[in-house]
Amino acid sequence: MKALSIILNVVLLIAVIYLYVLHFSQGDAAVSTNEAGEVIASGKIPRIAYVNSDTLLANYKFFQTKRGELEKKAEDLQKEYENRARGLQNEISNFQENAGTMTMNQARAVEEDLRKKQQNLMQYQQNLSNQLMEEESKVNNELYEKVSDYLEDYGKNQDFKLVLTYTKNSGVLYADDSLDITTQIIKGLNDAYDGNATTNAADSTAN
């Protein structure tokens, strides 16, 4: 069996593009094309910023914690599979060593039993892979929601109209460091994560 891989889909994070396009004080309805044109004509340049997704993933405590948990889970599942595969291989080796002492019917019965066990092992491997992929998908969704929700609030509070993600080898050829808000976003996300962790620990102690 190939090692169960951890593939945390960074594309999901890179897809976090917060677009708050020229909303007025009401904040709910987007301006019309004419209104947007008037803003552009007035010379008022919308505030734009970007987040380095590589740096964010490397420093966001939630992501690091979840990645560690998934890697540990993958290792445990791999060991569990290998134990079962080793047990089956021992049975096969034992059968090969003793096949000469069996009747034809006995040998056929053992072969059929081993064949079913091999099929069960393959199905078990697939189930483990599916289980891991489901958990990875859940973490990806949580990551997306946490980052996008925080960026939405941050963008509104700081009056940013556009917050993009930037990563090495992306389509962005140049980005001025003055537009980089990665450090602030990481701090805000980690403060929120630490606050939730403290609250959960307090609730657990109280119970």
TrEMBL record:
GO terms for cellular component: cytosol. Residues 60-134 form a coiled coil. One of its GO terms (molecular function) is unfolded protein binding. Gene3D superfamilies: Skp domain. GO terms for biological process: protein stabilization. The keyword Cytoplasm does not apply. The keyword Coiled coil applies. Keywords: Coiled coil, Membrane, Signal, Transmembrane, Transmembrane helix. It comes from the Bacteria. The chain crosses the membrane at residues 6-24. Belongs to the Skp family. PANTHER family: CHAPERONE PROTEIN SKP. This is OmpH family outer membrane protein.
